[in-house]
Design brief:
By secondary structure, the protein is an all-beta fold. The protein is 0% helix and 54% strand. It has no helices and 21 strands. Strands 1-2-3-9-4-12-13 form a seven-stranded mixed β-sheet, with no helix packed on it. It has a four-stranded antiparallel β-sheet with strand order 8-5-10-11, with no helix packed on it. Strand 18 and strand 19 form a beta hairpin. It is globular. The two termini are 26 Å apart. The N terminus is likely disordered.
Protein backbone atom coordinates (compact mmCIF):
# COMPACT_ATOMS: atom_id res chain seq x y z
CA UNK A 1 0.00 0.00 0.00
CA UNK A 2 1.44 3.41 -1.00
CA UNK A 3 1.90 5.99 1.71
CA UNK A 4 1.99 9.77 1.51
CA UNK A 5 4.22 12.03 3.58
CA UNK A 6 4.17 15.83 3.70
CA UNK A 7 7.47 17.48 4.57
CA UNK A 8 8.06 21.24 4.83
CA UNK A 9 11.64 22.42 4.25
CA UNK A 10 12.54 26.12 4.36
CA UNK A 11 9.31 27.32 2.82
CA UNK A 12 9.10 24.52 0.27
CA UNK A 13 6.35 21.95 0.42
CA UNK A 14 7.22 18.62 -1.13
CA UNK A 15 4.77 15.80 -1.71
CA UNK A 16 6.63 12.52 -1.50
CA UNK A 17 4.93 9.51 -3.04
CA UNK A 18 5.94 5.89 -2.58
CA UNK A 19 7.89 5.11 -5.70
CA UNK A 20 6.11 3.76 -8.73
CA UNK A 21 7.62 4.65 -12.12
CA UNK A 22 4.51 6.46 -13.34
CA UNK A 23 3.83 8.48 -10.21
CA UNK A 24 4.36 12.25 -10.14
CA UNK A 25 6.31 14.21 -7.56
CA UNK A 26 4.74 17.59 -6.88
CA UNK A 27 7.01 20.52 -6.02
CA UNK A 28 5.26 23.64 -4.70
CA UNK A 29 6.83 26.95 -3.84
CA UNK A 30 4.53 28.02 -1.05
CA UNK A 31 5.07 31.78 -1.17
CA UNK A 32 1.82 33.58 -1.94
CA UNK A 33 1.64 33.98 -5.70
CA UNK A 34 -1.88 35.43 -5.47
CA UNK A 35 -4.20 34.37 -8.27
CA UNK A 36 -1.62 34.78 -11.03
CA UNK A 37 0.10 31.36 -11.02
CA UNK A 38 -0.22 27.96 -12.60
CA UNK A 39 1.29 24.47 -12.45
CA UNK A 40 3.06 22.63 -15.24
CA UNK A 41 4.25 19.05 -15.59
CA UNK A 42 7.93 18.37 -16.37
CA UNK A 43 9.62 15.16 -17.45
CA UNK A 44 13.22 15.05 -16.18
CA UNK A 45 15.59 13.18 -18.51
CA UNK A 46 19.23 12.21 -17.93
CA UNK A 47 21.08 11.53 -21.19
CA UNK A 48 24.57 11.87 -19.67
CA UNK A 49 27.20 9.58 -18.17
CA UNK A 50 26.65 11.12 -14.73
CA UNK A 51 24.32 10.88 -11.76
CA UNK A 52 22.56 14.24 -11.72
CA UNK A 53 20.71 16.45 -9.23
CA UNK A 54 17.94 18.62 -10.69
CA UNK A 55 16.80 21.94 -9.16
CA UNK A 56 13.97 24.27 -10.26
CA UNK A 57 12.90 27.66 -8.87
CA UNK A 58 10.95 30.72 -9.93
CA UNK A 59 13.68 33.21 -10.80
CA UNK A 60 12.37 36.17 -8.80
CA UNK A 61 9.93 36.80 -6.01
CA UNK A 62 9.24 40.36 -4.84
CA UNK A 63 12.21 41.59 -6.88
CA UNK A 64 14.77 39.26 -5.30
CA UNK A 65 16.51 36.70 -7.50
CA UNK A 66 16.66 33.21 -6.03
CA UNK A 67 19.73 31.02 -5.97
CA UNK A 68 18.41 27.91 -7.71
CA UNK A 69 21.54 25.97 -6.67
CA UNK A 70 20.36 26.20 -3.05
CA UNK A 71 19.30 22.84 -1.63
CA UNK A 72 15.76 24.06 -0.93
CA UNK A 73 15.10 24.03 -4.69
CA UNK A 74 16.34 20.46 -5.15
CA UNK A 75 13.82 18.34 -7.09
CA UNK A 76 15.25 14.90 -7.81
CA UNK A 77 18.32 12.76 -8.55
CA UNK A 78 18.53 10.63 -11.70
CA UNK A 79 21.24 8.09 -12.48
CA UNK A 80 22.53 7.64 -16.01
CA UNK A 81 20.30 5.42 -18.14
CA UNK A 82 17.36 5.72 -15.77
CA UNK A 83 13.81 6.23 -16.90
CA UNK A 84 12.40 9.72 -16.75
CA UNK A 85 10.92 11.24 -13.60
CA UNK A 86 7.75 13.32 -13.74
CA UNK A 87 7.25 16.35 -11.50
CA UNK A 88 4.73 19.17 -11.14
CA UNK A 89 5.94 22.69 -10.35
CA UNK A 90 4.22 26.02 -9.66
CA UNK A 91 5.12 29.02 -11.80
CA UNK A 92 4.45 32.70 -11.41
CA UNK A 93 2.68 33.89 -14.57
CA UNK A 94 4.90 36.10 -16.76
CA UNK A 95 8.05 35.17 -14.79
CA UNK A 96 10.98 32.95 -15.65
CA UNK A 97 11.95 29.60 -14.23
CA UNK A 98 15.56 28.87 -13.35
CA UNK A 99 16.66 25.27 -13.88
CA UNK A 100 19.94 23.87 -12.60
CA UNK A 101 21.70 20.52 -12.96
CA UNK A 102 24.84 19.35 -11.17
CA UNK A 103 26.69 16.02 -11.32
CA UNK A 104 27.22 13.96 -8.16
CA UNK A 105 30.50 12.33 -7.10
CA UNK A 106 32.50 13.80 -10.01
CA UNK A 107 33.62 17.29 -10.93
CA UNK A 108 32.21 18.66 -14.16
CA UNK A 109 30.94 22.23 -14.54
CA UNK A 110 27.29 22.55 -13.51
CA UNK A 111 24.69 24.12 -15.83
CA UNK A 112 21.92 26.66 -15.23
CA UNK A 113 19.33 28.01 -17.67
CA UNK A 114 16.51 30.54 -17.36
CA UNK A 115 13.40 29.67 -19.36
CA UNK A 116 9.87 30.93 -19.89
CA UNK A 117 7.06 28.38 -19.85
CA UNK A 118 3.48 28.55 -21.06
CA UNK A 119 0.42 27.81 -18.99
CA UNK A 120 -0.96 24.24 -19.03
CA UNK A 121 1.88 22.82 -21.13
CA UNK A 122 4.03 19.77 -20.40
CA UNK A 123 7.80 19.98 -20.88
CA UNK A 124 10.82 17.74 -21.27
CA UNK A 125 13.84 18.89 -19.27
CA UNK A 126 16.74 17.11 -20.96
CA UNK A 127 20.27 17.02 -19.54
CA UNK A 128 22.87 15.89 -22.10
CA UNK A 129 26.60 16.28 -22.63
CA UNK A 130 29.17 17.43 -25.14
CA UNK A 131 32.42 15.78 -24.16
CA UNK A 132 32.45 16.26 -20.38
CA UNK A 133 30.40 19.47 -20.58
CA UNK A 134 26.82 19.35 -19.27
CA UNK A 135 24.09 20.82 -21.48
CA UNK A 136 20.45 21.48 -20.66
CA UNK A 137 17.45 21.89 -23.00
CA UNK A 138 13.76 22.34 -22.22
CA UNK A 139 11.11 21.78 -24.89
CA UNK A 140 7.43 20.90 -25.01
CA UNK A 141 6.38 17.29 -24.75
CA UNK A 142 4.61 16.00 -27.85
CA UNK A 143 2.97 12.80 -28.95
CA UNK A 144 2.05 11.55 -32.40
CA UNK A 145 0.48 8.17 -32.99
CA UNK A 146 0.12 5.76 -35.88
CA UNK A 147 -1.26 2.36 -34.96
CA UNK A 148 1.33 0.28 -36.81
CA UNK A 149 4.36 2.56 -36.61
CA UNK A 150 6.90 3.99 -34.19
CA UNK A 151 6.80 7.79 -33.85
CA UNK A 152 10.27 9.16 -33.03
CA UNK A 153 11.81 12.59 -32.50
CA UNK A 154 15.61 12.70 -32.61
CA UNK A 155 17.71 15.02 -30.42
CA UNK A 156 21.32 15.40 -31.57
CA UNK A 157 24.28 15.73 -29.20
CA UNK A 158 26.61 16.18 -32.20
CA UNK A 159 26.07 16.96 -35.87
CA UNK A 160 24.60 13.73 -37.24
CA UNK A 161 23.16 12.27 -40.42
CA UNK A 162 19.75 10.66 -39.80
CA UNK A 163 17.76 8.43 -42.13
CA UNK A 164 14.17 7.26 -41.58
CA UNK A 165 13.26 4.73 -44.27
CA UNK A 166 14.06 6.77 -47.41
CA UNK A 167 14.00 10.22 -45.74
CA UNK A 168 17.43 11.63 -44.90
CA UNK A 169 18.40 14.83 -43.02
CA UNK A 170 21.14 16.44 -40.94
CA UNK A 171 20.76 17.57 -37.31
CA UNK A 172 23.21 19.89 -35.57
CA UNK A 173 24.21 19.53 -31.91
CA UNK A 174 21.34 20.60 -29.66
CA UNK A 175 18.77 20.33 -32.49
CA UNK A 176 15.49 18.41 -32.18
CA UNK A 177 13.73 16.88 -35.18
CA UNK A 178 10.02 16.69 -35.87
CA UNK A 179 8.32 13.31 -35.50
CA UNK A 180 9.23 10.71 -38.08
CA UNK A 181 7.60 7.31 -38.47
CA UNK A 182 8.87 3.84 -39.23
CA UNK A 183 7.15 0.48 -39.44
CA UNK A 184 10.48 -1.39 -39.37
CA UNK A 185 12.17 -1.81 -36.01
CA UNK A 186 15.42 -3.29 -37.37
CA UNK A 187 16.28 -1.15 -40.40
CA UNK A 188 13.78 1.73 -40.28
CA UNK A 189 16.22 4.23 -38.73
CA UNK A 190 19.94 4.82 -39.15
CA UNK A 191 22.21 7.41 -37.48
CA UNK A 192 25.60 8.08 -39.07
CA UNK A 193 25.02 5.03 -41.25
CA UNK A 194 24.46 2.74 -38.26
CA UNK A 195 21.18 0.91 -37.82
CA UNK A 196 19.32 1.77 -34.62
CA UNK A 197 17.59 -1.24 -33.06
CA UNK A 198 14.05 -0.18 -32.11
CA UNK A 199 12.60 -3.63 -31.52
CA UNK A 200 12.16 -3.12 -27.76
CA UNK A 201 9.73 -0.25 -28.43
CA UNK A 202 5.94 -0.45 -28.78
CA UNK A 203 4.22 0.35 -32.04
CA UNK A 204 1.61 3.08 -31.78
CA UNK A 205 3.64 5.08 -29.23
CA UNK A 206 5.92 8.14 -29.32
CA UNK A 207 9.60 8.30 -28.35
CA UNK A 208 12.52 10.69 -27.97
CA UNK A 209 15.85 9.36 -29.23
CA UNK A 210 19.05 11.07 -28.05
CA UNK A 211 21.83 10.30 -30.54
CA UNK A 212 25.41 11.23 -31.45
CA UNK A 213 28.17 10.04 -33.77
CA UNK A 214 28.07 6.61 -32.14
CA UNK A 215 24.37 6.26 -32.94
CA UNK A 216 21.71 5.73 -30.28
CA UNK A 217 22.70 6.96 -26.83
CA UNK A 218 19.37 7.00 -24.96
CA UNK A 219 15.70 6.62 -25.83
CA UNK A 220 12.77 7.80 -23.69
CA UNK A 221 9.01 7.55 -23.82
CA UNK A 222 7.63 10.85 -25.12
CA UNK A 223 5.30 12.28 -22.48
Amino acid sequence: MNTLKLITLSGVLVLLVACDSDEVIEKLETANFGSDFYKNDYQLLNATDYELDYHIANVKLNGDERDVADQEYYIATLVTGSQSQNIEHESNALRELSVYVVARNVYVPDIQNKVEVSKDKNYNLLAWQQGEQLKLNMFKQKRDYKANALAIRVFATQTIDVKFNNKQFILDAGELSAFNFTEHCVDGLTVEGQKVDLCDLSFGRSYLLVAGKSGKQFIFNEG
